[in-house]
Specification:
With 185 residues, the chain is an alpha+beta fold. The chain is 35% helix and 14% strand. The structure holds zinc ion.
Length: 185
């Protein structure tokens, strides 16, 4: 039997305050929260690192965003932080922390005090928010931008003194032959 605590929570062998559930993930309130309303998004499948199941991890991130939005609208924190640290439980999960004024809910902070009644109330508040956002499959289209080639305007070449001289001489020669031809005619 799998002794993983998150697997037990997923199988409902341990009671938890679930705020969201679908075929891939469960989200519930952390019983030792770093801030009021802190939730965990846990894939139903047991694996430790994000790249062991890319597709499921991706769905978990989508759900984490939805939970973040639900928390923001129901509990009105300043913002919401997210973290993925597989240090304590070797079952992939995303932590969703509401951030209230003067409080940075870091993982290394001591858990705040809570109780069954408060957790029940928080769960029903978070659950009551409807988030109008569906994770969609996005097609990644690689756009290759054409880099416009900078057209160099050819500047009229500056003629050197020597070139000017040569040209002048040529003109003079032409002139000479012109005159001479006329004379010969
Ligand atoms: Zn597990």
């Amino acid at each position: 039997m799998n002794e993983c605590i998150f697997c037990k929570l997923v199988r409902k062998e341990i009671p938890s305050k679930v705020v969201y559930e679908d075929d891939n993930c469960v989200a519930f309130l952390d019983v030792m929260p770093r801030s009021k309303g802190m939730c965990l998004v846990v894939p139903k499948k047991h694996y430790t690192f994000f790249d062991e199941a890319f597709d499921t991890s991706s769905k978990a991130f989508d759900i984490a965003l939805i939970i973040g939005k639900k928390i923001k609208e129901s509990l009105e924190p300043l913002t919401v932080f997210f973290s993925v640290i597989q240090a304590q439980v070797p079952h992939f999960h995303i932590r969703v922390y509401p951030v209230y004024e003067d409080q940075i809910p870091l993982g290394e902070n001591q858990p705040i005090e809570t109780n069954e009644a408060e957790l029940t109330e928080l769960a029903s508040k978070i659950k009551s928010v409807y988030v109008d956002w569906e994770p969609k499959k996005k097609e990644v289209v690689e756009v290759i931008k054409e880099v416009p080639v900078e057209k160099k305007k050819s500047k009229p070449k500056e003629r050197t003194e020597e070139e000017v001289k040569v040209e002048k001489k040529k003109e003079q020669e032409k002139d000479f032959w012109k005159r001479r031809n006329l004379e010969m005619a």
